[in-house]
Amino acid sequence: MNDDSTSRRILVYAAVTGALGVLIGAFGAHGLPDFLARQGVDPETLTKRLAQFDTGARYHLVHATALFALASLGFGSPESRRWAARFFLAGIILFSGSLYLLVFTGITKFGMVTPLGGLSWIIGWATLAVVSRKSKHL
What we know:
Strand content: under 5%
Distance between the termini: 23 Å
Number of helices: 5
CATH class: Mainly Alpha
Number of strands: 0
CATH architecture: Up-down Bundle
Order of helices and strands: HHHHH
CATH topology: Four Helix Bundle (Hemerythrin (Met), subunit A)
Shape: elongated
Helix content: over 70%
């Protein structure tokens, strides 16, 4: 896969995850409190769940933006950029996705997956650092 197709693919991932992040965040702000209240979630747990959901949505959008930046980079090998993108995507799914599931279902075991998403993001950022360090264009 050449550099243009790598950038194009990562840009599609950025756009899709960004749109989903906005949609999910909007639901979290406007629909989730009533949804959880109708499920019988007590006020203390409701506050905690809304904060968890907000954390998932915020990090989701941060990493959608990171994907956009990664697509826009004019340096680094396509392969290394693809790996960074994979780790960012995995982080969105594992970190944010597990928080979304925890909040919707109340199954706290989903929280055990969340740190794996954080680790995935750390690896993605480290990959980006290595790509940047090796670049002759900066």
